[in-house]
Structures are given as structure tokens and as C-alpha cells.
Amino acid sequence: MHGIPTLYIGVAAPLVEISRIWMTGLPEGGHKAMKDFPRREINAYRFKWLDDDRSVLTFHTGVRVPEARVQEVIEKWSGEQPACISTSHVEPVESIDHRRVVAELRATLQEQPVRIMTRVGLTLQQLQRDLSQHHPELVLLNAHGTPDGCLMFEDGRSGGEIVSGERLFPLLEPRPQVLFLAACHSGGVIRRAKETAEWDDGAIVYINTETSVKVTACAAFASMFYPALLQGHCVDEAFAVAQQFVANDPVMGDFSVVGESLAPSKKFCLADHGRQTSLAVPDFKAVDETDHASSEPPYPNQLRRTSERIVGRRREMQQIINAILPLPAGITAPGGQRRVVCLTKEGGIGKTTIALEIVDWIRERHLFPGGLFELSCESIRSEQELLSRLLSLFGLPRDEHRGDLLALLAEVIRHALPAGQPALLMLDNLDDLFGRQADVALHQRATEILERMLTTSGSLRMLVTCRWPLGLSDHEYQMEIPPMQEEEARDVFLSHLESPQHRVEVQETWAQPDSPIRHLIRMSGYHPQSLRLLARQMGRKGITLTHLRDEAHRDLLAFLQEPLAHDNDQDRLKKVEVSYELSYRHLSDAGKRLFARLSRLPGGVWCGEEIDDWLDWHDLLGKGWRHILEAELDYFALVHYDGNGGSGVFAMLPPMLEFARRKYDEQDDSEWDATWVDFWCQHVSGWNDLISGRVPDSWDIPDEQRGIVGLQMQLQATTCFEQTQDNWLTLFDYLVKADGSLATSLLLDMVSFARLSGQLMLLRDLSQMAVDKLRKSDTETDLAPCLVTLGNMLRELGAREEARESFREALEIYRRLAHTHPAAYDAAVAGTLNNLGTVLFDLGARDEARESFRKALEIYRRLAEAHPAAYDAAVAGTLNNLGNVLRELGAREEARESYGEALEIYRRLAHIHPAAYDSAVATTLNNLGNVLRELGAREEARESFREALDS
Ligand SMILES: Nc1ncnc2c1ncn2[C@@H]1O[C@H](COP(=O)(O)OP(=O)(O)OP(=O)(O)O)[C@@H](O)[C@H]1O
Ligand SMILES: [Mg+2]
């Protein structure tokens, strides 16, 4: 039985080609001398005659070939020194859409007896290494070719490296049995390789020298060619069927061409030698695919990508990648390499789009084996939150975020990032922490965090987007994202046009310098987001390019004297603003109103079948909200929809949100403001009830189902909280300034969720904010509960002494209030005593803790007598705490009593509300077991532990 053949797919897809362009005259022998042109010595390519009588020649060389060498070699040939016209000519390289080609091929060959290896980002050396390591029988090279016999490989840093046929072929060792050069003009490569490409023991498929070939044709050809080979046909036969297959294709078949053009199927050629080669194929199928990159680097939390494809930006991407990749060993940058690349400039210019595309590009090439990490920093409002999010990103569970978080982060990074293995952290949207409006102290502390990370790990690099430079002087390489190039801008516009007629019109009139499309593109400021808005305006009924051009021109005249003139930064920003206004102006009144109101919902509108039952958006946004969102706001690209399956979110990009906020401020919508406050307060409060897991007594549910129903309620509430977090936090920010009482009740409704989702840090910040604000007012009734919440968060985060102070301050207030209104505040006094007891216990002040619990218990017992349903749980909780302190104090009998009584109550409650109290029963049983063991009652102790495990 034979081994399974390997198909090696090498993809070279550089972003740009960087070359030197040279000019030289012909030597004495005239054109005959061209035969001896020293191409090989200087890797020359892309020859062109500059004049009609063909006496002046231009050609390119790679930038790695030293100028002096070119001068020397050419002078020897022509007798005169060549002139260097450009020392670094940058030409974007067209995408070859390899992701789809590879995916399609993998799907076709899924059931075939073949092992597939993909190498994206092929360099010449990598190819050589892969051939010698893996000995693939089938090699498919997917790359660009030049008409004069070269292939474009990658240079390892996103640039292209031109390799001529005579350099390539001798390196193809050991030889594959079948080589497919899927590159335009690849016949030229073979011609240049001469006898080194005459293989008797292997076949070569290539593309006709004179033509280019479409990626889709290559994919179709391969999808027929390889299965035929794997079924045992010789290359000659497999080639013929694959060619027929392309010829019969309904889109690119032989009937698709007009005039003299060569049909796609005829572009495929088979070298004369080795045509009878056939593969030794095993007689079994379906092999596990193995990829050479079996150990994928860590990539924990990917940010969401849009489905739209990025257009252009290859020059910028190349520069950024070049700056962010570690330098090769032995090469140093003067002054050291900067490890943070910060993409700056105004909103909507494409920073996030570029950054995400770069991460994808890097991931395909396995360039950061230490891992890729992405974090959106859009809603981060404090350095503690930033730290906490980073800790989670690097793998530390939230309930372990306590103590000195900065030191903890350093430790976690040391552990998560192996030394010497480059890792990349992408931080999107740092505007709120580092931007112009950010608080100076916050900016400074955020700077410290990034600097500490960089000094902790020498192999960590960061790719950051922020409208302004971060100011990390020693580490930062700042890169301003420029407006798009004119042709790229046109392509973005085209990519957002819906109507085929409009697309044809753009393409047909582009060449005319004064066409409406040229004007429109100029008036967009070459800003991608504006281009998208303008293109979407073409969806209006009856609109033409001329009409839209005139509208934009008229609007711009209010700000600019000459809208079509070349612009500076200021002018460009005005153009962007006008494109927003233009879209807004054409909304219906209801659309305008909804658009402005959405500025109060930075977390977007989360919707879907089930979700619409949980969140009654029509109460907030009015009855026809969904239709307006889809038919107007999404249609004109003012919002976008991110979703999969039946659920998703309608949201706005940051600059649009700012624009909507301005519109909201211009409208007087105070009545709706009240609806908005009410909407979130009610929902959050309702979810907080659900999260307790207490199924209301009034619900008619059989006992055995109460547990599962309670758990479902908790799950639903957690999801609702999570999905709308940015929205209710926005309300909280508003209420802290506007209404202390409502802010307090909203805060209290967040506590359970914050605990459950491990967001203690966030809740500590929010309660601190509320406390600071309320201390300045005279509303002690609101201040006290916020102090208690703050105390709880501080305690859970390990700041015990601060927590004790918070509880003491709250207790003082509650005692004062209870003095005059005992009925209203006794419970609060008891609750605070209980909390204070817990922190005193943590601090080792056991006697004081016991006193605190006893006092609390006394009050709760009294209250429970009158209202058992309301206070039984509190009595049990306090008994449990008291038991703990008694046990520590050596009063074991008393402790047992305490636990025993608590258990009895919890059992009763768990019978009615299992989801809410089952865990309390288990904890108390455990405590009881411990004290029974200490008392020597082994059998009883064992019974207690067993029951704890079962419950
Ligand atoms: N190269 C591109 N090709 C196609 N669309 C683009 C390109 N660049 C940006 N866009 C579109 O423009 C819009 C804004 O881009 P993006 O969100 O990347 O901007 P940004 O600079 O990150 O803005 P902000 O500062 O607000 O975060 C997006 O809708 C995106 O789809
Ligand atoms: Mg962005």
C-alpha cells in the first residue's frame, strides 16, 4: 500500500511591490544585444521601451539588489551607467482572493486520498524549506506573475519579491511530481528557466505566457484536475478533463469571450515533458487533513468583523506591518525598534478596518507565535476597568482580579507570553483613555499600564487605534491614516452601490475628468465612511449621480468657497460633516427622531424573536421602529446591523454616534427623556428580580419544576444585562448627575449581576461615583445604600479597611434615620451590622464581629416575627455568619446551634425557591459538618457532608 500523496498549496499574496526603476540606452549591437542582457545577475524584470524607435529601455530591480551592483553590471553590458529613475517605487499588488480559492479546493478534495498543506505568505526560502521537509508530490503555487517570466513571492514583511524562472527552478528540490504554476504569464517563468524546467519525471502546468488568468478559472481548473489525478489518471488525461471543465463553465467558458480574445480554458498549458506522469494513489479515501501549522498561537477573544470587504489601503497596511513585525535577527534599528504602532486621525477614516485586516493578515502567516490578543476599549471608563479587561484577556478569571491589579497584570503577562515569542495586542479605540477629552490623570495612569506591559514582556507588540497619538514617547510609532487614493475611493463608492446601472455608469464615466462621479469622489474628502454614505444616497428613488453631485456641491458651498478644489485637513473634515448632514436631511421626520434618540443607546438596539418579548423596544422607540431602522437608517448606512441567525444589534459607529448626539441636543425631547429613564429603570429592576432565581409564589408551577424555572430566569436576566450593558450604564452616568435617588436604585439593581459576571471593579467605580456625588448633596437616605454597596465591593476586592470605613459611615447614617423612623430603617441597620461583622471577621476582630452579628440578628428576628417571608432569609444568613465567628472563637456548641437553626430555615426556603437557596443549604451543611467533626460527632458530620454534596 502506498502512502497518501501531499498537495502543497503555496500562496504568495504580498501587499505591495517595492522596486527601483532604471533607464538605460542600448549598447552598440542594438537590439541583438538584448539577448545578452544580464537579467539573472541583477534580477531584472518588467522591461519597457521608452520611445518608439526602441533605443531607451526601462526595467525594474528589487530593492534588495544594491544600486552599485546594477550600475556595474549594466555598464559592463551597455558601456554606460544606467540612471535610477526611482529608488523606491511602491505599487499596490492586487488581491488574489486566496482565502476563497483555498477553501473551495479543500472542500472539493475533502473525500479524496490526499493530505493538504497550505502555506500562506510564501517566501522563496520558505518554499525551499517546505519542499525539503515535506516532499510534497503535488505543488500548487498561487501567486502573481510578470509577463517576462518572474513570479512574485513575499519578502517575509508584506512586500513582494520578484523571482525569475532561472532562479526559481533549480531550487525546486526534491521535485514534485506535478507542479501547477497558477500565476498569470507563468509560461514565461518556464521559458526563462530553460533546461532546468525540462522534467522527465514530473509534469508542469502553467498559464500561457501572453495572458493573464482569472483566479476563478484557476480554482475551477484545480477542482477538476486534482480529483482526476487522485483517481489514477495520468497528468495528460487529468489536464484534458480539467480544460474541458473550464471550457464548459457557464460564466467563463469558451462562449464567454468576444473577438480575438483567448478563452480561459485555452490559457492553461501543459509542458511537453513528463505528461505521462501519474500518481501512486492508495486505495483508501478520506484522510485527516493535517496542516503544518498544527500548533496555532493563542487567539482568545476575536473582535467582530463586518462582512464587507476592505478596499485598497495596501500601501498603509504594508507600512504598518513593516513597523510592527520584529526585525530579523542581527538587524537593529537606530534608537531601537518601537513596539507600539498607533493608527491616528479622524473618526471613520478606516483605522479599525485596517487594524483588523492586519491582524487577519498576520494570523494567516503565523507571524506572532506568542499569540494574538484583541480588545475593544470603546466603553472603558477607568484604568481599573482597563486593567480588569486586560487581565481577563490574558486568561485570569474575573473573580481573581483583586489587590494591586497592575502588579497582577505584569505577573499574568509574564506567565501568558513566553519570552522570545512575539505576541501582538490590538487595542481598538483608545480615544476615551488617551484622547483630547480624556481626563489628564486617567491618561497618565493608562499610559503607565501600557508601559508596564511593554517593559514586562520584551516580545509584546501593540497595534492601537486612537484619533490622537498616545504620547508613549519611547515606544510609539505614530502612523496617520491618510485619506484614500482617488481610485481606491471610487472602489469604496462602487462597493456600496446597490444598482448595477449605477455601477456601470461609474465605470464608464470615470475616465472623464469632469464627470459627476469624479466630482462626487472629490467632494467626499476621500473619506471611506462618507463615501459609504454618499453611495447609499444613490438608493433614493429617481436619484442620479449628477443630482447627488449637485446636492453635495450646494451643501458644501455653505462651508467652502470651492468644493472641488484640493483640500487641506480642515476642508476635508467639513466635507465629512456635510456627507453626514446630507444623509440625515433625507430621512423622514420619524427617521430623524429615531436617529437622534439612538444616541442615548450606544450599545445599540439588540433584537430578535425571543428578545423582542424580553425588551419591549416599541415602548421606547415607538411602534414602527424596526421598519424605520431597516428602511431608512440601515439603508442609508447611518446604522449597521451586526447579527447572525435570528438575533443581532443595530448600532452606530463612533463618529455617527457623536453626530446623533448633536442632533439629539438640538431637539427638545425632554418628554422622551423621561420615557427613556423609565424604560431602563424598569427593565433593570425586573431583571434583577429574575436574577435572584426566586420564582414568585403567585406562579402556578409544580414544585419539581421550580428549580429549573428559577435557573432559566437567571440565565435570561444575565443575558439581558450583558447585551444591554452600554445602554444602562449610559443611563447611570446621566442619573448620577440628574437624580441621586434613581441612580441609587439603579445601582442596587446592578449588584447581583455585577457579582455574577465578576464585574466587581466596575461596580466599585460606579458606587464610588455615586457616593462622591451624594456626599455633596444632603440626601443621606441615598448615600447610605451606596456606601454599603461600595463597602461590599471593596471587601470582595480585598480592600478590607476601606470597606470597614464605608460600612461604619453607612451604619451611623442608618442609626440616625432609624431613630426617627424605626419601621423604615431597622432592616437597613441590621443589614449594615451584618456586613460590618463580616469585614471585621476578615480583619481578625472576632469579638467585635460577634457583637455586630448578634445585634443584627436581634433586629432581624424581631422583623421576621412580623414578616417571615421578607426576613427569614436574612435571619438564616446572619445565623450562618454568627456560627462562623463562634466556631473561630472556640464556642463550638453555640456554633452548632447557630448553623442548625440556619439550616432549618434555608431548607424551608429552598423547598419553595430551589434556584435561589439550594447553594445556601449546601454551604450551611458544610459549615455544620465542620463543626460537628470538631466536636467529635463523626457520624453526624459525615451525614452532613454527604447531604451537602447531594444538594
Ligand atoms: N478600506 C476600506 N474599504 C472599505 N470600507 C472601508 C474602508 N475603510 C473604512 N471603511 C468603512 O468606513 C467606515 C468607518 O471605518 P472605521 O470604523 O474603520 O473607521 P475608524 O477610523 O476606526 O473610526 P473611529 O475613530 O470612529 O473608530 C466603516 O463602515 C468601514 O466599513
Ligand atoms: Mg475605530
TrEMBL record:
TPR repeats lie at residues 784-817, 830-863. Keywords: TPR repeat. This is Uncharacterized protein. SMART domains: TPR. GO terms for molecular function: ATP hydrolysis activity. It comes from the Bacteria. Residues 83-250 form the CHAT domain. Residues 337-440 form the ORC1/DEAH AAA+ ATPase domain.
